[in-house]
Write a structure and sequence with these properties.
two-stranded antiparallel ribbon, Serine Threonine Protein Phosphatase 5, Tetratricopeptide repeat, two-stranded antiparallel sheet, 10 strands, mainly alpha, 19 helices, single chain, 511 residues
């Protein structure tokens, strides 16, 4: 269980959209005169953490589209909301409820971070004291903008509090390249000032900031190959300091998805902790509900909703010798006291499908205070140390192909994957060409981080085109004829934002 609780207070004006200012008071504090100590800076930072765990951001609206747009997850319940189904079939319009609610919440996170940064300037404490706290706000701001720029491309970039409607109405979009420049600057600040280790992994450390720098540079490799070397150098420094940063691969992959064990793990680099906040929209994570099996009698959750369910091709194409497969899937359910295989799921509920379901968020849920596991004790790792190893391997292959060092990073992750059942699969990597290594490491990322909201960003940053969707049976895992690479790598900016502020027009291509 978590030992560190956040006080959630919203300070001043929160930006609902980029052009529409409203107050959403959780605790009413005036910014003027409030910031007097480092404790006050932390209170403001905690407001940003709170927005990250809101149902409109990661709890459901922001996370579900990322999962559905990948080639590994589809809609299981055909009667679920149309706004969800549209993401699965790439038929999203600019009034889709998933984006019209997650977009403004993203800017509330940013507004809270900006308030903390601005307020810190009035705290009369030495920089080497207060910057360690303020650096959390820089990290959160960079983290949120990184999410936004990958989803939307050119977006408004705000680095200070917006305090009046006139100012909000003049906001315009910032070019993608400039957004990335600002993200890097924030992460460099965070890397400089954050401590090597934090008391809990829901607070970013120096390693968190540096690992995200590596991922940002890896993502920017699509624009300039020189960024791959930068990604490698940042990841390599984290790896070289894994002892100092108290990082390691969790020996048992299952423990990463066990609410009672993951808090002690050294693998998560930054997590979202829903137990740190109260009930309601700030205290519900929803992943167990969205991914759980309808009418499953296990885990005392009352089952799930069968909304986000892997395609059968994902299950069938994953080698049974890979321990991660057993951890990632539930291919049976408990129904009326009997264990039922997934092939017999039909008929157990009108909305259930005959496919294995995701187990990462349902098998060891911990505390569940709401029906269908809407509230659990699970920490959601936004990045794990395994990803740092694979970032280093992928980036090094782009600059120095054939490197035994790159092989070694992949093999560390593979060794854990075969340790759970004593098999020889997956075997160590060696002797691959640059092209084959590139393909291999993306495949390894697919399995290592299955259903962890990473695959979609790999598809977009590597511009995989139609292959994941329309080459069914030849590497593709989903048939999605509506997928259009000229349009669907980005989401549309919400139409209501464009109506309120024409400066944000035009919308992304194809919308």
């Amino acid at each position: 269980m978590k030992t560190y609780k956040y006080l959630f207070l919203l300070i001043g004006l929160s930006i609902i959209g980029c052009s529409n200012l409203e107050e959403e008071p959780v605790g009413l504090l005036a910014p003027e005169g409030f910031f007097k100590s480092t404790k006050d800076i932390q209170t403001a930072v905690n407001g940003a953490y709170g927005h990250l765990t809101h149902e409109n951001w990661w709890g459901r609206k922001g996370s579900l589209p990322i999962m559905l747009r990948s080639d590994m997850v589809a809609i299981g319940d055909p009667n679920t909301a149309q706004r969800r189904r549209d993401h699965d079939t790439f038929e999203v319009a600019d009034d889709n409820g998933m984006i019209t609610e997650s977009w403004p919440r993203s800017y509330q996170v940013i507004a809270a971070a900006n308030q903390a940064i601005a307020g810190a300037a009035s705290v009369n404490v030495a920089d080497d004291i207060k910057n360690k706290i303020t650096a959390q706000a820089y990290f959160i701001r960079a983290f949120t903008y990184f999410q936004l720029v990958r989803l939307y491309g050119d977006i408004p970039y705000l680095d200070k509090p917006v305090t009046n409607a006139e100012e909000a109405g003049s906001i315009s979009k910032t070019a993608t390249a400039d957004v990335y420049t600002n993200i890097i600057a924030d992460l460099v600040f965070a890397k400089t000032w954050l401590p090597d280790v934090q008391p809990v992994r829901s607070m970013p450390s120096k390693a968190s900031a540096q690992s995200y720098l590596a991922l940002v540079y890896l993502t920017m490799g699509q624009f300039d190959n020189a960024n791959f070397n930068k990604a490698y150098l940042e990841a390599k420094e984290v790896i070289q300091n894994e002892g100092k940063y108290q990082l390691a691969l969790e020996p048992d992959f299952q423990n990463l998805f066990n609410a009672d064990k993951v808090d002690a793990s050294k693998e998560p680099l930054f997590v979202l902790d829903y137990n740190a906040f109260g009930d309601g929209d700030y205290g519900r994570d929803f992943q167990p509900a969205l991914t759980g099996i309808r009418n499953d009698e296990r885990n005392s959750t009352g089952g799930g909703w069968s909304v986000a369910v892997p395609t059968l091709a994902v299950y069938n194409s994953w080698n049974n010798l890979d321990y991660r497969k057993a951890v990632s899937f539930d291919d049976t359910m408990l129904y009326r006291g009997a264990v039922v295989p997934y092939t017999d799921f039909l008929g157990k509920h009108p909305s259930i499908v005959a496919r294995p379901h995701i187990a990462k968020y349902t098998r060891h849920i911990g505390l569940s205070l709401d029906g269908n596991g809407r509230k659990s004790s699970i920490n959601y790792a936004m990045m794990r140390y395994a990803e740092v190893l694979l970032i280093a391997a992928e980036a090094l292959n782009e600059t120095s192909p054939g490197s035994s060092e790159a092989n070694g990073y992949v093999n560390r992750v593979r060794a854990r994957a075969r340790s759970g059942n004593g098999s020889s699969f997956p075997a160590d990597v060696s002797g691959l060409s640059q092209s084959d290594f590139r393909t291999m490491v993306l495949e390894d990322r697919k399995w290592e981080f299955a259903f962890e909201f990473i695959r979609w960003f790999d598809i977009t940053r590597r511009k995989m085109g139609d292959a994941p969707y329309n080459v069914f049976g030849a590497g593709g895992l989903e048939q999605r004829p509506n997928f259009n690479s000229a349009r669907d790598y980005l989401l549309p900016i919400p139409g209501d934002e464009l109506q309120r502020n024409p400066n944000l027009m035009p919308n992304n291509s194809g919308y």
